[in-house]
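== Fold encoding ==
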Amino acid sequence: MPDVPPPPPASNTKVLIAGAGVAGLTLAILLDKAGIAYEIFERQEHIKPQGSAAALGFNIMPLMEQLGLLDELKSISKVVDGTTLYKEDMEVIREIRLRDNRALTGYDTLVTSRPEFHALLTSRVSKDKIHMNKHIVGFTQDIDSVTISCADGTIYTGDILVGADGAYSSVRKILYRQMKDEGILPASDEVELLSHYLSILGTTRPLDPKNYEGLEDDDSHSDAVIGNERGLSWRYFTIPHNRVCWRIDVQAKDMDPALYENWLNAEYNVFDVTQLPEEWKHHKLPIMGELKDLFDSSPKESISKVVLEDRVYETWKHGRTVLIGDAAHKVADRDIRKKENWMDGKFNGRAMNAILDGVVLANLLYEMSTPSQKNINKALDEFYTERFPSVTKELNATQQMLTVLAGKTWLDSAARFVLLKLVPKYFKEKSQEYTLQYRPQALFLPSIESRGSVPNTPQRPSRKYTALQKNQAAATAAAAAVTAAAAAGIAASEVNSDSSIS
């Protein structure tokens, strides 16, 4: 981490952030570094220790280094050296090695538990900036400000409202309702979020290494299994302290309707694994044991259910409001389905996209001279222009690869064989070129030099930060000149004094 200069001059912009998840916390940390005032409003009364793995690739590592988080992130993570795709009978479909990414980008792919990663981000945000139990039920915006109303009757006013409150975002629902009343909401965004798949996730307590192969290895064992039952798959990562992050994914359209309805109506983010079909519990794991072993070893309160679909909304912004993370796009981090994950270790799932949204938006807000509606419009337009194509491209690739990686027909099998076995390494590497280069950094912090053989995508320098550096350099030079002059004056005085004595 390079030496950090004095903080930039305080901005006259105030940002209201809905949601204390990865997206909201990352943005908050960046705004703090940029000297921009903010407050976070989280609907939950307490943060629950739920979720499974957070696999974090090279795209965000320069930013983590800039923020001084990389060393601590490494201390709670394992390196993902490779990943293996299996059939249910444990026949290997494909082994993917990721060590080349270290040479290409300078960074490893790391995996930790989502609660631990969330705790790391939370530790960098002042407690008085996070307001818990603040469910946003309405907001108004005009040419001068935006004002939110919470369920407890409290009201807050700022210059920009950022909806970082998840796939079922309250901010998005309110914004879309207002835009529909104005007749400006695209028809595609009027469709409600419908579940395309369900995921059950958890993290075990420390396990006995004698019962699981490779549990104590320095690198993470990252394996995925495509089940014989259509639409069913499961995977896991081994993480520090002999624990395993696991998940089961199932296509909603392939489920028994009665079971699907039961899961859909269950309390969001809480799941009782006794509801799972008995035969699922006895599916084998490549590291030995069965899925049931992972269920039984995981604290019940930490097991969660996610009912979502792949979805990128067209509308991310209007007036003084902008959506980021899952509120704007939900590209499933169902790693079994993603070409990028298996071919280059990108792991650009929910957490990664949320972080990338945060740094791009923070850079643009930092550059604003004033929070006028004109400046906000320009910043949000540029944010959408950079992030929307990237997320859309990822969604399309995910959907196109679904049948190739998980399909059951002979045609699916043939396509999978060609893609995973026969495609020359050269063409795979060429297809990765953009992904490898895209490693955005905060433009208001000292930059991290490109590492590896593939340079970072060039970013447009910040005019404000460049001016700040020049002013700091000039001030440092002036202070040095004063010090030198004072030293010269003292020396001359001493010479004169010696002459008079003689």
Q: What stands out?
A: The two ends are 55 Å apart (CA to CA). The longest helix spans residues 463-501. The chain is about 40% helix and 20% strand. Residues 333-348 have pLDDT under 50 and may be disordered.
